[in-house]
Fold:
Amino acid sequence: MSIADSRRGRWIAALLVLLGIVVALELFAGVLGVLVDIVDANYLRAVLRLTVPIAFAALGGIFAEKSGVINIGLEGLLIISAFTSIAVAGLLGGGDATQAELWIGFGSAVLASVLFALLFAVVCIEFKADQIIAGLAVWLIALGLAPFASKVIWGQVNSPPIATLNNWTLRIPTTDVVLFDASPPVFMMLISVPVAWYALNRTAFGRWIEASGENPKALDTVGVDVRKVRYTGVLLSGFFSGLGGAGLALGRVGQFIGGGTTMVNGRGWIGITAYLFGNYNPLGAFGASFLFASLDALQIRLQQLGYNVPSELIGIIPYVTVVVVLAFVGRTRLPSAAGDHYESGEE
Amino acid sequence: MSVAVHLAGITKRFPGVVANDEVDLEVEEGSVHALLGENGAGKTTLMNVLYGLYQPDGGTVHVHGDSREFYTPRDAIDAGVGMIHQHFMLVDTLTTAENIVLGHEPRKWGGLAMDRAQAERDVRELGERYGFDVDPEAKIEDVSVGVQQRVEILKALYGGADVLILDEPTAVLTPQEVEDLFGVFEELAAEDKTIIFITHKLGEAMDAADEITVLRDGRNVGTVDAADTTREELAELMVGREVLLEADKEPAEPGDVGLSVSDLRVTDDRGVEQVSGVNIDVREGEVFGIAGVDGNGQSELVGAITGLRAPESGTVRVDGRDVTDLSRRERIENGMAYVPEDRQKRGLVMDFDLVENGLLGSQHTAPFSDGGRIDWAESREHARGVIEEYDVRPNDPDAEAESLSGGNQQKFVVGREFARDPEVVVASHPTRGVDVGSIEFIHERILDLRRAGKTVLLVSSKLDEVQQLSDRLGVMYEGEVVDVVDPDRVTEEELGLLMAGQIPEDAPSIADAVGGEP
Ligand SMILES: Nc1ncnc2c1ncn2[C@@H]1O[C@H](COP(=O)(O)OP(=O)(O)OP(=O)(O)O)[C@@H](O)[C@H]1O
Ligand SMILES: [Mg+2]
Structure:
C-alpha cells in the first residue's frame, strides 16, 4: 500500500515539476506551439544520446550505494573516462582514428574508470576514509588531472576533434526495415538498464548487495564476505561510469573538452539525483535520467530555434526536482548502513 | 544420549573484567538447556565464544565430541552451531524467505538467477516441519518481532544448525509468543536439535528447559535438573543470597490527579491510528499499569505522553497544566521522567561514556550546566552516584555504554531517570533484560516513588510485573483501554481475555479509568 502511495506521490511530484517547467518555458518562448515542432524522432535521438552519461552514472551509483558505499565521485569517473577514451584513440589514430582504434579507446576508458573506482574503494574500505570526502576527492582530482593531461598531450585543455563511433543499426532480419539506429553507447545503455535491474532484483548477488547496504552483519554471519560485495559494488560503479564517460566522448562529441566543468558538465551529479529520484531502482533511475536529458535537449533545441532560454536555469531543474521529490514525497529510502564502515568480527 | 556441546574450562577476559572464569558446560543432544545469571554474569560472552565471535583465552570447545576452534561465526555455522542474537540480524528490506536463504540461495540457470520459487518452497517446507508459519513473501519490516525471531530460527536451521543458541529470546515477546516459542523448542528437541537459551525469568527456565545452568560472576555455580528445582533455589544460586520474588506493597494513598490523558488519538509513522481516544487519570501516590500485547498502541501512547510523538488530538496534563504542545525538554523541566522501551535507541547514546549518558536530558539545567558550559566534575559525581545506587557494573563512569551488558545498560537508564526527582514517571518495560536481583531493586524504587507521592505510569508486557506493582491496571487492545481492573483481584485468564479484546462477564472492572477511585 505504502509503496503504491509513494509511487503515485513520485509521479505527482514529477508531473508538478514538469508542469512548472512547461509554464516557465511558455513564459520564455511565448508560444506553447513550439513544443509540438520540437518533439520528433530527431529530438528523441538527441535525448537518448544525452541520457547515456547520466543513466550510466546513475546505474553505477546504485550499485555502489546499495552495497553501502556512497560514491559521489561519479562525476569524476565520467571525466576520467571521457578523457581517456579520446586520449587513447587520439594517440593511436590521431584526427582520423579508425573504428577499431576508437573501440580500443573506449575499452581503455572503462578500464581507467574501474581503476579509479578501485582506488576509491581501497581508500574507503581498507583505510576507512569518509566516503563523502573520498568521493569529493575523486571528483576534484579528475577535474584537475584531465585538463592538465590534455595540456601535456595537446598543448591545450581541449583535444582536437576525432571521429565518433559508427551507429549500430537494428534491422528486421532478412529485410531492410530499420527498427532502430543509434550510436553503440545508446544500445549499451538500453541493455544495461534491464540487466542491472535483473541483477539487483533477481539474483543472489543482488540480495547480497542489498544486505551489504542494509545490515552487513547479517550478511557476514551467513558467511558472505561483505568486503568483497562492497568492492564489487564500487567497481561496478566504475565500470558503468566508464561506459557513460566513454559513451559521451566517443558516441556523441568526438572530442575532449576540458575547460571549466569539462564536457561532463555536472552529468555525474545529475546521475546521483536521478537514482535518488528513482529510489535506487535502475528502471526509475533511467526514467529520471531520460527526463533530465530531455530538458537538456529541449534547451539546446530551443536555442537552435532562436529562443533564448538561459541554459543555467534549465541546468538547475534536476536539482530542484530532486529537492522537491526528497522533501515533499520523502519516500526515497537510503540503505540503512550506507556510509558506514564495516569490520568483520567487530562487536 | 550423546553430548552435543561441551565447553571445558572456558576463560574469557576483557580489559579489567574476567567475563568467563573456567566455565564448564555440557549439553546433551536433543535437550533444551537454560542459562541463567545476573546481568554481567557472562552468559552472552560464553555463548559468543561457542559461536566463534570471541576467541577464549583458555579452555576448549567440543561439538559432537570433536574438539573445535572457531575463529569466526562461519566456522561455528559449519560445525552446526547457530546463534540468534538479542538484536536480530535480518535485512529489513528483504522478504522472510530471502533472509532465510541469504548466503545459501538456491540457484537456477547455471547460477545466473536465484531460484525464488525454490527458496519459498524450502522455507514453507521447513516451517511446516517445525510447526511455524511464516509468510515467505512478507518483508521483514512488515512482520512482528515474534515472526522475525522465527525467521532467525529458520535461518539457522536452513544453514544446517543442529545446536541453536538463543540470547534472551523471550525478552521481546508477548506471553502468547513465548508459549509458541517453547512449543517450537519442543518440536526442535524432538528432532534431536539441541537448544541453549539465555533468560532472566526463572519460571521460563523451569518451564522450557530440561537442565538449567546458573552463572555468577563468570563462574558456573551449578547445573540443575529443571524438574527438581525451585524458583527460590535458582534465585539464590544466581544472586548468592535470598531474593524477595514478590514486592511487598502497602495500600495506595492516592492524592490529586498527577497525570491526565484525555481523548488522546495518536497515529504511527505510517499514519495509521494506533491510539483511538484514550482517557487515563493517574493520581499522585499511585502506580497505574498498562498491560496489553505489544503493538496495541502502547508505544504510541507513551510517545504522545512523553512528547516524542505529536498526537492528532486530545490533551496531556501534568498536575493540571496542559503539556500537550510542550517539547520533550519542557516536559522534563515540568518534572516528567521517562524510562524508554528501547534503551539502545532512545535511552542511551551507545558510544558515549556513562558520565555523558548520565547527563542526557539534564545537559542544559543546573547543577550540570550554567546554560552554556557543562560542569563535568558535577556530571561525573552524578554518574558515579547512579552507578553506586543501582549497582551498575562495571563500576566505572568512563566506560562506554556499549561495553555494558544489556541489563546493566537498563539499570543505568532507570537510575538516571529516577534520579531526576520527577513528579511524574513514565516507565516502559523498566526491567526488560534485567536479572532478578536488580528487578527486585527496580521494583522497590518504583514503590519508593509511589510512597513519596509521585505519579507513576507503568507499561510492561510482563503480567506479573504490572500486576504486582500497579494499583489500577488498564488493558489496551487495538488502541483503546478496553477495561481498567483491580490487579489484586483479576486472574491471568481474565487478563488474557481482555488482552485479546474480549471483556469477560464478571471481570473485576473498576467502572472507568477517569477519576476511578481505588
Ligand atoms: N566487548 C566487551 N568489552 C569489554 N567488556 C565486555 C564486553 N562484552 C562484555 N563485557 C563485560 O563482560 C561481562 C559479562 O558480560 P555479558 O554480556 O556476557 O553479561 P550477560 O550475562 O550476558 O549479562 P546481561 O544479562 O546483562 O545481558 C560484563 O562485565 C561486561 O561488562
Ligand atoms: Mg547478555
About this structure: The pocket of magnesium ion (ligand 2) is lined by residues B 43-44, 167, 405-406 (CB under 6 Å).
